[in-house]
Amino acid sequence: MLELSDLRKRFAGGPDAPDGKVALDGISFAVQPGEMFGFVGANGAGKTTTMRIVMGVLEADSGSVAWKGRPLEHADRRRFGYMPEERGLYQKMSVAEQVEYFGRLHGLGPSAARKATADLLERLGLTERRGDAVQALSLGNQQRVQLAVALVHDPELLVLDEPFSGLDPIAVDALVAVLQERCRGGVPVIFSSHQLELVERLCDSVGIVSSGRMVAAGTVAGLRSAEGGTLRVVVRDPAPGWADGLPGTVTVAGDRHELRAVDADDQEILRRALKAGRVEYFGVEQPTLTDIFKEAVA
Ligand SMILES: Nc1ncnc2c1ncn2[C@@H]1O[C@H](COP(=O)(O)OP(=O)(O)OP(=O)(O)O)[C@@H](O)[C@H]1O
């Protein structure tokens, strides 16, 4: 549905970096209807640059962005919802006026804009602040307004640059519910985040970007199985030297010996552990998205 192919972008250099800075070095991925795509990467990896290119804020040096099978055009973007990294709200306008205004700007009629605004302010916990100027709100509440602005016109695609940063847990849950609802309605959602547990919980697929390149992409389950699990055994008070010759590493805390090993013969390790002492834990642990991320960007 949205398809990015081999995007490249170099920023002009200054006196310190005359050759410029390669921000994107061939980014490709696709997001399908109703798919939640988590875009993760270290600071400066290229996430914002990619999203800005999708939204037409920046132009790529080469590569392409297609929407519904044809080159993305300016008119398509009017039907997208975008939350930019540089938050842009009119500070003196009231919360409700602001959201309605952006709804109108994206083509909603007055009553549709009013209704969508009231619904979203309720969902995002802003109804009581509807008449307040944006500048009087806390940063987290300003963020909620920014999200309402991105969502008000019922967009066909959502591109959200760190939408969860700075939100309290209640607001995170409210936003998750809204995004999941939009996804269920067929809208593809791309969002960047450093909150990897949240990405793992929410996303159908994930792209890990490092130095302008996509270093891993796919479903969280697929990335996990590619990575393989870690065997973990905890033995209480084992005989000395019980793990000699076994693969992996052993850490000792008091009388608890913990062995962790990858790609090991689990049955052999279990036999040795049972012989050595009381086995308190034995299992294969799947890597978390944080483990996968660290491995991919290392
Ligand atoms: N306008 C610009 N001029 C020069 N360099 C830029 C510009 N915008 C971005 N860059 C550089 O491009 C690279 C990618 O930046 P980008 O903002 O896309 O990263 P990011 O993954 O969004 O990072 P973060 O997680 O910190 O928001 C960085 O090295 C950044 O310094």
TrEMBL record:
Family under the similarity heading: Belongs to the ABC transporter superfamily.
Predominant subcellular localization, coarse grouping: membrane
Family matches, as SMART domains: AAA (SM00382)
Record domain ABC transporter: where: 2-236
Classification lineage: Bacteria, Bacillati, Actinomycetota, Actinomycetes, Streptosporangiales
Alphabetical GO biological process terms: response to antibiotic
Organism: Nonomuraea pusilla
Locations listed in the record: Cell membrane
Protein name: ABC-2 type transport system ATP-binding protein
Assigned GO CC terms: plasma membrane
Membrane topology of this protein: Peripheral membrane protein
PROSITE patterns associated with the record: ABC_TRANSPORTER_1, ABC_TRANSPORTER_2
Any GO molecular function: ATP hydrolysis activity
Keywords: Antibiotic resistance, ATP-binding, Nucleotide-binding, Transport
Domain of life, source organism: Bacteria
Any Pfam family the entry gives: DrrA1-3_C
